[in-house]
Amino acid sequence: MRPDFDCVVIGAGLVGAAQALAIRRHDLSVLVVEAQQPPSGRGSGDVRGLALSPPSKRFIEVLGVWNL
For residue 61, what are the CA distances in angstroms to 17, 38, 46, 47, 64? Predict the structure, then answer.
């Protein structure tokens, strides 16, 4: 039997993960599809910077993950 999902999010980066979390909070089932394997251990070693607009920052704050 094939599982059913209400939504499919392509990409598990910052945007995809945040979108999946927001969708899940509406009691919908979500499948996140990512082309790459997740990094092993804590953190990915990726030290790139990130610029967010104030509305994007607020969206992440509303999700409750800004300080993680």
Answer: 14, 24, 22, 22, 5
List, for residues 10-24, the tens digit of each pLDDT value.
999 889 999 999 999
Look up tokens 């990094």; give the residue: 39
User: 22-66: per-residue pLDDT in tens?
Assistant: 999 999 999 999 998 877 766 666 778 889 999 999 999 999 999
Angstrom distances, CA of residue 58 to CA of 22, 26, 27, 66 = 13, 18, 21, 9
How far from the centroid of its chain's Cα atoms is residue 23's Cα?
Answer: 10
- Segments making up each domain of the chain, as ranges: 1-37+50-68
Given this model, what pLDDT does residue 7 score? 97
d(CA 9, CA 23): 10
